[in-house]
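Hi,

I'm pasting everything inline rather than attaching a file, because the server keeps stripping attachments. The sequence lines come first, and each chain or strand is labelled.
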Amino acid sequence: MDNDSLYFLSNWANVESGGNALLTMWNIFKHISIHHYLTVAAIIFTIGFYGVIVRRNAISILMSIELMLNAVNLNFVAFNQIWGLKITRAAFTSNEDVLTPVGQIFTIFIIIIAAAEAAVGLAIVIAFYRQRHSVKVEDADLMRW
Amino acid sequence: MTSMEFSPQTIDFTAIMPIIIISAGILVTLLLPFAAKGRAKIINPLVALIVLLAAFISSARIWDLGRASFDGMYTADNATLFASFIFIIVAFITVIAITARYCPFLRSPDGEGLFASPEVFPLMLTVVVGAIVMSASRNLILTFLAIETLSIPLYVLAGMNLSSERSKEASLKYFLTGAFASGFLAYGISLIYGAVGKLGYHAILDACSPTAADYTLYAGLALVAVGFGFKVALVPFHAWVPDVYQGSPALISGFMASLVKAAGFTAILRFFGEGIVPLYGIWWVAIAIIAALTMTVGNLMALNQIVLKRLLAYSSIAHAGYLLLAVLIIGKEWSEKGVTAGAPLGDAMQCAFFYLAGYVFAIIGSFAIIWWLTPSDKEGALLEIDDVRGLNDRHPLHAALFALFLFSLAGFPITAGFLGKFFLFASALSHGFILLVVFALLNAVLSAYYYLKIIVAMYMKSAPEHASLCEEPSPNPWIYAVVWTCTLATLWLGIIPASILGLLGSVSVGG
Amino acid sequence: MLTAYVPILILFAFMVAISLIIIVLSHYLSSRKYSSRERFEEPYECGLSTGGIKPGRYPVKFYLVAILFVVFDVEAVFLWPWAISFQSFREMGYSVFWYAEMIVFLGILLVGYVYLVGKNAFDWK
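And the predicted assembly:
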């Protein structure tokens, strides 16, 4: 995709790269390293943690827990960029850019667990709601101390 | 060995046979009620019992063989097998006890059974599968899957008493804290994966070096430890235990307090012993502090409890604190000697397993007694010490057996609890944890107070004026079988420990 | 250094411009039947006249179906790595084994499905 106007813009944007705009943007994306993914994952995990601590609605807590597990997925996929490549290189003794998807398989397990937890959790919340007519966790107060 | 070299040849079907048998049993007990209609109420538990028996036999057949499957990911060494014996026996006991309430012609005349749904059995078998895999797993992702396989059915089982609001509440609380904990566990595992690149315990062992600090790995290990701490209820993460144990049906509470705690500790022992033992110099302080806190907080909180189930819940927290001593001993022993495949487990693992065996029978026996005293279990969550006042006059047998279990939990001689504590503390002492052992002994003395409080109430107080929550115990032969099994086990381990110790002496680390 | 982000800025400008253009165009080009004030109070339903807000309850069956959908949908995820690795297992001569693995997995799912049917989970009444 060679576009003159984009070419002009990219030159204007990024003189030393000298590519077109898409290339420039691609370069930017390439600079998104594993650290960026890990940071995003850490932020998502923290948001989930915060949600579990702060929210009083059981459904919101459930959603926050799902957020935490999704941060884990992001972590696994990001780390797989390093380790998957290493495993491939060790196995094929070549420099192929093929990822061995070990971390991605772990992600699938986490997704399954998250789905099972969500299903069971929603059922429990509904059962609780039917008796107490509330999904607020502070209404789960029959037993204390 | 990379994952590319995996081949089906690494699957050893004899090693995973117990798992396969129980899994098949889950499917059968799930569908059987549709086929057997009315008779399902007796057939379903019968199938569950047969499945457990078959799993027991298939585990016993590979005793001493040290089989491993899936590239060493799943090890059926003797430690695993001994743990699976405990799990299977506990499940066996619980299934029988539930059946007593569940079978129409074995049920006491008070009518509506508490476990109206036949799903109890597949759920319990799933928990057993999770527990066995947990104790056998040598890979963090498998451990995580096993923990979830164990936990998710338990969330449901906790809410199984459909008529009780407390049961629902327990289920909700258990689910929220449990899922929260698995979030931590999973995040920690992902960080360890990032630092090591593999999740096998061997790979982690090789990657752990006390000299070169890898903070990604440390962060991951800390989060995994938090996750484990939630699951076995160590002290900063224990808040859910009393509520959940109080609200759940008494037998399920006993099931959790025994089987789940034992499974959690075998997983912890394996992870700390075979995985991160080179970092012993870093984690031992944390574990020692948590151990001291767990014993103390558990016992102090138990002192003022008046609800029996809650008291036992806090006491089970305290027992987790004692068991952490075993983790420390194993860490110390193996970090000095180094882990070698096929080496005998040493007295640390031996006394940990002995303690677990003694504790498991005493705690499930006590919960079974509570359940026996309140057959409909509507009010079991509220049974107080005052309600068992003068129990000796009304039901001397129940009082005697309950007292025996409480003595075992407190650690009085001729019971399994005494020898368990004795071996554990002696071993810790010989490994130089003097301060911690002094602490544990003080705690044991402290704990005797609240156990004795119940016994005093049963034997020396007169029956309460007001109507007691204790109903007339049902003359149910199945329950007798259960409680007598626990009694015999407690006494047997307490009086003739040599038989079990001999068995444990041959327990070794798998290759 | 900041100049490297100019293309992203341009992308944002495009996005904002296009959405504005679409809104303005639809404002001028669409035919409007109603201009009464109270129409704005009603829920928006893609330009159609609404059937009003339904009071009353959702049947809880929908939750059940949603939950079951999530579970079964997610289990299908396992088919993907299985299918990807089938070729290499066939080359190693384990195609029957690998096929049997999936049959076992699907069999377990099928048991779950039969259980649901037996429990009348799909009986919408």
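Confidence is low (pLDDT under 50) at residues 104-115 of chain B.

If the labels don't parse on your end, tell me and I'll reformat.
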